[in-house]
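Q: Here's a chain of 242 amino acids. Please give me its 3D structure as tokens.
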Amino acid sequence: MTRKRLDFCIEEAGCLLWVAPRSLGGLPAAELGQVWMGGHREVTTEELVRRGAMMPLALYQDDGYVVRFILGDLSEQEAAEWTSRAIWKLDVPCGEILVSGVLTPDFQAEFATMVPAEANGSYWLGAYIAVPPGAYLVEIQGYPPGDLSGGWGTITEPRMFGPHPGIQPEKPLEYWWRTHPDETPPGWMADEPEEGGSYVDFIIRLSPLEGEMAEPALEEDGCLQWEFRKPDICPAGIRSTL
């Protein structure tokens, strides 16, 4: 399998992150928005998710975000620092993965504007990436400081995000000094200006699908449920190439 790795920005999120084969599981682009809004007579979002034609995930804000797309292995830091995750499958016979942050009733017009993603590119609504056709295990992971799933917030702002089973809240700098006693915290954690590029908000990683998977946990609207965790070592944030 040819490895691929690129960072790009989605500017308009609409409180949503979703990935799908660009063929949309055989559904016309004009109908996908109807499915999402619950107005399609024959197809539901849950059905698209369960058959591997879509992976939608809800976000708590409509801010844009930086995505790192990976076809291959995660680095040690990428594997260690995620604070939210969703895992499911996608069937990609067309050989193109679509990444977007919006899904409206007029999605057909939005779909027509989406172009191939390039390294360090910026896209208003979404873009797509060429991959070998096939069935994939897809891992979508969120990272601080911009984890819009709320995973980082369950650790550092429990009053806003609420308690979460198995996660002990902790203030960011206390978390840092406890687990990095001899290291200077990153500027974003101390609310100080920083030089350099932005940080990765989400990693979308594809690997070959092997065997069957257990049915995913879904929200009432058909979105996949996020899994939250508190890493043993306080995350420093993953620098983007943007």
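Q: Can you summarize the key feature?
A: The mean pLDDT is 94.
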